[in-house]
Amino acid sequence: MRIGVIGAGIVGLSTAYALRRYPVSVRCYESGAPMGGRSRGGTRIFRLAHGTPALVRYAARARTGWRRWERTAGRTLVGAESTVVSGVGADEWYAAMRSAGVRCGLYADVADVPGLPARPGTPGPFLVDPAGGVIRAEATGEFLTAAVRRSVHVDAVRRITVHGDTATIHSTGGSWQCDSVLIAAGTGTAALAAPLGLPVPAALEHHVRFTFPLVATAGPDGGALPPPRCWIERSGAWKDGFTTYGHLAAPGQWAIGGHLPEEDTAWEIGPDEARRRAEPVVTGYVAEFLGDVVDPTPVDTVYCAVTPELGDGIQVARAGPVLAVWGENLFKFAPALGADLAAAVASRGLPDDLP
Length: 355
Known about the structure:
- Helices cover about 25% and strands about 30% of the residues.
- By secondary structure, it is α/β, with parallel strands linked by helices.
- The protein folds into two domains: about 1-40 and about 140-200 and about 310-345, FAD/NAD(P)-binding domain; about 85-130 and about 205-305, 2-Layer Sandwich (D-Amino Acid Oxidase, Chain A, domain 2), CATH 3.30.9.10.
- The strands form four sheets. The chain has an eight-stranded mixed β-sheet, sandwiched between helices.
- β15 (about 245-250) and β16 form a beta hairpin.
- The longest helix has 21 residues, at about 55-75.
- The protein is globular and about 60 Å long.
- GO terms for molecular function: flavin adenine dinucleotide binding; sarcosine oxidase activity.
- This is Glycine/D-amino acid oxidase.
């Protein structure tokens, strides 16, 4: 059986990795460097914390998969920093985690949650997810790419055609007929899926993440401070409707992304203008809301294109031998999602266990 995987981001690579267990031939197409699109950047946040018990359980299954990957890779891929969700909806997420039977805590005062880069008086409530932490995204990409390097083809896919039970992948380098295809091409998924009648949303918007120095990296006794917890801040206390996520990007460096108004992220303004608009907003938030702990001088930026308003869900659709997958915030699910997608493309069915 011949299987084509289009996209060598985290979803495509994790699927190709899982397909090594099957008696199949795999080509994983990527027009540029692996992990160079939506999966770019050195770090991400892992969390069990989600709004439904089904998503919590799926993340817990993914965490087990991350541990297996770590044993194989011989290195840490998800840190032990923990993750905090604060503000609007934290209590509902806490209820979902309790319903799923995973360990968590809910606190009213930021003083009860040490390890956040937050000022005293920062509003809660605060949901603490002890299983959360920083995903070493770059290290994960290196591990997966090395494991499947013989399957990766640096080649741009132009279109897919279906002929009964088979499909042909048409790329810059030629055409390849196969029995099953997974489209996991990030921002390119919609264009490849639309001619096949697959309902992948085509809208895109810009998103920029900035990295800032932490003010203090050592305690009063000169010893190293414990790494700060990952933080999803949803209170809107700085500005109504403005929410952020933040985590340790490197020793002494705090990465933070903010959710800006639609007019500042609209696809039509272009990435350079999106960066220009985002920087003063995010640095203003840092200066006024986190300024005792984080220096509001950005030292790095990471840009990506995202699909608006998808949230945490995973979406799939099939047209004959072609399966498409899309969603946002998929990185944390990668070990479980890759295994489920591999089973689906090998059986030419749909994933059974997606939340």
